[in-house]
Amino acid sequence: EIKSLGQGHPGSLWHTGRWNQIPGIASQSQREPLCPCAEDESGAVVVQTAPGKVVTHRGGTITLPCRYHYDVSAHDLDEIRLKWTKVVDPMSFVDVFVAMGKEHRAFGSYRGRTALQEDGAGDASLVIRNVTLQDYGRYECEVTNELEDDTGMVKLDLEGVIFPYHPRLGRYTLNFHEAQEACLEQDGILASYDQLHTAWLEGMDWCNAGWLEDGSVQYPISRPRDECGRKDTPVGVRNYGYRHKDDEQYDAFCFTSNLNGRVYFLKTYRKLSYPEALQACKKNGAQVAKVGQLYAAWKIQLLDKCEAGWVEDGSIRYPIVNPRSRCGGREPGVRNLGFPDKKYKLFGVYCYKKAGEGSPEKGGGKPGKWRPLQV
Q1: Which Cys residues form disulphide pairs (predicted)?
Q2: CA–CA separation, 319 vs 294, rounded Å?
């Protein structure tokens, strides 16, 4: 893996092993733009990208590494076209960034957030700032001269957390498109198989099948039992295959990443109904936390609170980092008490406040640094 260096840094650490096509390049500190190999008399372009993946988090800055070699005597630099695209599926691509000579252009949501690194001749690396959840995925770096071209692939991964989700209507009520929307509404996106598999390796066990971003339906089992496909079946990510996106209904596996703010349990003198909880967070200069925000606070900011509270979708949840007997079991996680009556049932509330909007529980004040919350 190649991890980002955080905000303000490009985050491109060049892998010290072999490159995809050309051996011998050990690190980014080697500024020599051409590979240590014989000149290609045909003038062909050869592209190098980092093996494995680059890793950052939402809001971070990352560089997608890509360098190229070509016969400088055969082509002028201004004749070289650099193009970055995102691979949506094997037959679908989204334009990200194009450069030819001094002309540069970014597309769609990448406008204003992307630029070439331009670390000497032969560098086609792309810098992406303020990374979003939607930036996750595979990118293709294509370098073209008048007659020849070559491409390389870079995978962008995000640090974050998977959370299973179903709405108030109950389990298995979402088709694929509704699952996509449900994740977005709760500050997430549909998870990829790789993300779900990583969560399973870390111990995730969930007995309900959910949609993934590729249109497949799967679920992770770490403890086989009869109610989850029989006790004698092996552990693993179980796969229902690709299902009909409009007609079939399942839960969703959502993914979210780093928060640009903080989730906190609001201290109030009494328990609240859901409408009262909305107003209490608003009065405190915040909003009721979404499910994904609560999961991110639990996983990344280590929020640990043995107090049940409202979250945005009308469910009651609470995050436990350090399990204890009075707090719902032996495993860490976000406990879910379901969807009670919003008008008559009374609980606490989890609020979310964006960074720079004042200190939690004071409803204003000067913005300052916030630290991971550990209770």
Answers
A1: 207-228, 306-327
A2: 7
54, 131 Cβ separation under 8 angstroms? no
Q: Are 162 and 191 in contact (CB under 8 A)?
A: yes
Residue 7 in tokens: 């905000």
What is the extent of the structural domain holding 282?
A: 259-323+332-354
Residue 301: inside a domain: yes
281-to-36, 46, 242, 286, 360 alpha-carbon distances in Å: 60, 56, 41, 5, 10
Compute the distance between CA of residue 370 and CA of residue 358 in angstroms, rounded to an integer: 10
Pairing verdict, β 53-56 and 149-158: parallel
State how far the Cα of 50 lies from the Cα of 35, in Å rounded to an integer: 14
Residue 303 lies in a domain: yes
* Contact in structure between 28 and 11 (CB atoms under 8 Å): no
Contacts with 228 (C-beta within 8 Å, 6 or more apart), sequence order: 207, 221
Per the structure, how many domains does the chain have? 3
Residues 154, 174 within the same domain: no
Q: Phi then psi for 15, rounded to 5 degrees?
A: -60, 145
Based on the fold, state whether residues 83 and 170 are members of the same structural domain.
no
Q: Would you give per-residue pLDDT tens digits along the chain (375 residues)?
A: 444 433 333 333 332 222 333 332 223 333 333 333 333 444 577 899 978 899 999 999 999 999 998 765 555 666 789 999 999 887 889 999 999 988 999 999 999 999 999 998 889 999 999 999 999 999 999 999 877 889 999 999 999 999 999 999 999 999 999 999 999 999 999 999 999 999 999 999 999 999 999 999 999 999 999 888 888 888 999 999 999 999 999 999 999 999 999 999 999 999 999 999 999 999 999 999 999 999 999 999 999 999 999 999 999 999 999 999 899 888 999 999 999 999 999 999 999 999 887 665 544 333 333 333 332
From residue 130, give the alpha-carbon distance in Å to each of 60, 71, 261, 372: 5, 36, 14, 20
The answer on 19 and 63 residing in a single domain is yes
